[in-house]
Structures are given as structure tokens and as C-alpha cells.
Amino acid sequence: MINCIIIEDQAPAQRILKRYIEDVGSLNLINTFSDPIEAMSFLKSNSVDVIFLDIHLPKLSGIDFLKAISNPPKVILTTAFPDYALESYDLDVVDYLLKPFSFQRFVKAVSKLSLSDQGVEKANESNATNSKSLFLKSGHEYIKIDIDQISHINSDADYTDVYYAEKKFISSESLKYWEDALSEYEFIRVHKSYIVNLKMVEKIAKNQIYLLTNAIVPIGRTYKKILDERYLSQK
Q1: 193 belongs to a structural domain
Q2: Rounded to two decimals, what is the model's pTM?
Q3: What is the four-CA torsion angle of 48, 50, 55, 56, rounded to 10 degrees?
Q4: CB 86 within 8 A of CB 40
């Protein structure tokens, strides 16, 4: 297990982090602090692998806190302000989470942890970059799904419909979010409202894509050229 602490003075932000940490099996939350001075004292006599550290704190900023402690553990910064990103990376932090961040973004940050030199397992290996699964937030639930089993994703006003196996999940994430999240896999945007899994394509006829699930997806004029050049023109 990876032992971690939270240093965050806002109760709502603490609750979100606690919930996210609970949902990642390899993380073990051992304490939460609103006061960075108290956290500093705790670190002197306790072993911690990771700190989830807010930048705007009372008495001492997260950046100053990080500069003040010797041999700090791994740090993932959390903040509502993007201004400190460059300075934070100079301090060799693992990642910089800009509030409000999704659970999927949190998992991505945790997967960057490399703690083998401290004799502990890597964080959430099943969700590392080379993994083929992700967590889908649907309502108040986080559902682990196999990426290869997603057939297509459809934008529906303020939500997206994710078609997975023989189910449909409603996600609060935008289509652009899914386009970015799936960019390293065999997914392509083929319409302003659709992303498809190329592994699920049975045939392409005219301006339509026929999927193995029997769904039919339209090809938008803007995206047809990209589809032709990247995939259909290959020998």
C-alpha cells in the first residue's frame, strides 16, 4: 500500500480527495491536515509516501511548505489556480491537479507515481498509462470498464452516452474529454457528436459506419477527410 496524507484547508476539497483515494485500491490515507505547520510536525516522525498538497493554505503556502521540508515524499499538488504550474515542476512534483478535477484525471496523476525506490508498489497499476481500463463516472458511481469493449460514444446535449458491451452509460464528461482520454487508443472522432472504436467497425459505406454491435454511426463531412487519409487510404 502507498501511504498518503492530504494537506488541504477546504472541507469540500478534502471530502473529494478522500473519496477518490478510497476508490483507488493501492492508496492508504493515514491523515488529513488543514494546517501545514501541523503536517510538517507529523512528517518528522511518520513515514509518508505521497502528499496531496493544496497550494493556497493558511500560514504557509503549499509551495513554501514544499521548499521548507527536507527529503520530501512524492507530491501531487492541487489548486484552483494555474499560475504556479511552472514553479511547481521546478520542485519536481509528480503532477499538478487543477481544481475541479475528475476522478479519471486523479487516477492519471496517481499512475505517474514511481515509488519503487522506496520499496512500495506503483500506484494503481491497473490504471497506469499502458492499461486498457478506466473509470467511468456515471451518476454517483465510478465504474471500471475495459476500453476495448467501448463501441462508440455519442454526445447528447450536456452529457455523453458511452456504449459499452451491451450497456449504455450516461457520463457527465464532454465528448472532448473522451476524445482526449482515448487518444492513445484506437478511437477516432468521426462526427461532431460521435467517437468510434475502430476495433468495433464492421464496414464503412458512404457516410456511415456500421459497428459490430449493429449500431450505425454517421460520418461528418469535416471528419471524413481525416478518416480517409489516416485509415481508409492505407494499403
Answers
A1: yes
A2: 0.53
A3: -50
A4: no
